[in-house]
Amino acid sequence: MKTKIVYLLTAFALTAVCAACGSKAASDGTEEASKGAVMLIDDVLEQAGQLVGDTIRFEGVCTHICKRSGRKIFLMGSDDTKTLRVEDAGLGKFDPRCVNHVVCVTGVLREQRIDEEYLKFQESLLEEQAAGRLEGQAGGCETEQKARQETASTPEQRIADMRARIAEREQQEGKAYLSFYFVDAVAYEIAEK
Fold it and tell me: Cα 140 to chain center, whole Å?
């Protein structure tokens, strides 16, 4: 609880600082987006369906950096249920100083769809792992699972839960898939305290 409060206070206190940040814009037309209004994570997630494919500029508190590659960070919005994964798009590893700081990002919002075909592929990977023909961690780290609001503890339970979530969404919205959003970053800057 104390950590969450520290994240929130840091995010709100540094919002003004980050709004004025000079982004390291790439030379592929993202300079205009880097000068535009800075969105908050909550707003990005709320409007994500309409922003897919757009270059956006946003900020959030970095809660995690991928330990294996250093090429993914997770930014938190107003609470830890509002998290957005940010991947490098040719930037290289993210600076480890990002963690526990507000980070301003310019990048392209992407959608990953999880459907029955994807779940069957994940099941085939589990079978390969069980047979000893494949090594690795299925489904990403705990931070990524939390960003997807996954609560199951085993890969098999995760797949079953996703199937149930897909069925519920199909019944409510007519969409037989789950949407998870992430950003391919083309520029980022750590807000100074």
Answer: 12
Q: Are 5 and 61 in contact (CB under 8 A)?
A: no
Pure H helices in the chain: 2-19, 31-35, 41-51, 116-130, 142-147, 155-173
Strands 83-88, 39-40: pairing is: unpaired
Backbone angles phi and psi of 154, in degrees to 5: -120, 155
CB atoms within 10 A of CB 168: 11
The 3-state DSSP class for residue 83 equals: strand
Question: What is the C-alpha to C-alpha distance for residues 25 and 121, in angstroms, rounded to an integer?
Answer: 37
Q: What stretches of 50-153 adopt beta strand conformation (E)?
A: 55-65, 72-76, 83-88, 102-114
Q: Which residues contact 23 (CB under 8 A, 6 or more apart)?
A: 34, 57, 104, 106, 187, 188, 189
pLDDT per residue as tens digits for the range 45-56: 999 999 999 999
Q: Domains of the chain, with CATH numbers? A: 2-112+179-190 (2.40.50.140), 116-176 (no CATH)
Tell me the per-residue pLDDT of 106-119, one tens digit each, with 9 for 90 and over.
Answer: 999 999 999 999 99
Q: Are 61 and 101 in contact (CB under 8 A)?
A: yes
